[in-house]
Amino acid sequence: MSCCSGISIPGHMLMSELEELKRRSAQRAAAYVHDHMVLGLGTGSTVRWLIEELGRQKDRQQLQIVSSSLFSKKRAEQAGLWVVEPDVIDHIDLVIDGVDQINPRKQVIKGGGGALVREKILAEEAKQVIWIMDTSKRVETIEDYALPVEIVPFSRSFVQRKLEHLGYAVKLRMRRDGTFLTDNQNYILDVSIPASHTIQDAHEELMHIAGVVETGYFHLDAMCITAGMTEVALW
Ligand code: 5RP
User: Fold this and answer.
1) How confident is the model at residue 10 (pLDDT cuts 50, 70, 90)?
2) Catalytic pick from 53, 119, 143, 205?
């Protein structure tokens, strides 16, 4: 650990530096948000910076926000933003959200925060999607990362057995006081993808199993904003 406040994380970056990169990517994305828009709000620590930024800006009275999680909803309301329920809007102009991993083809793994189902519903509906991130999220191979899969609790033992039989390693996501529950009151399985599968193969196989609600695999036409130590890149 070095002299400064903040925790060392892989890549010799301090936690405070990482947060600064997240803040920069969120700040850049905020420039694409206009008043009178309907904004789909993602979930996670990078999106938290976006909420702060939008809350600080004074011209956001007409901006309607539909949130992908109860957590982001609460933060947005605390920041003085106008959050609406999905059934009062008829379109989404823009979604801004974070990612867990992204490859050069813009195939994405999400769901680290457990909000993948609502995030996907919003992203698929949006006219435009912007992924925001620090550079550590950009990788060559996303298949090395566990894929979050939301399942109905009743199906847990059936799905887990089936997946293990198909060659997946499966971990039920836990929190300190028990099993992690999504905002939809479902479980998350963090699933390691067999070497023989691409992420897309895995997603398609998983979506055919009864009890699986959705996976954290996203592949959409999106703009990416990646903040590194020296520059913020749009790609
Ligand atoms: C939540 C997500 C998040 O967007 C993803 O986990 C990235 O989070 P962070 O910005 O904290 O790294 O998919 O379900």
Assistant:
1) low
2) 119
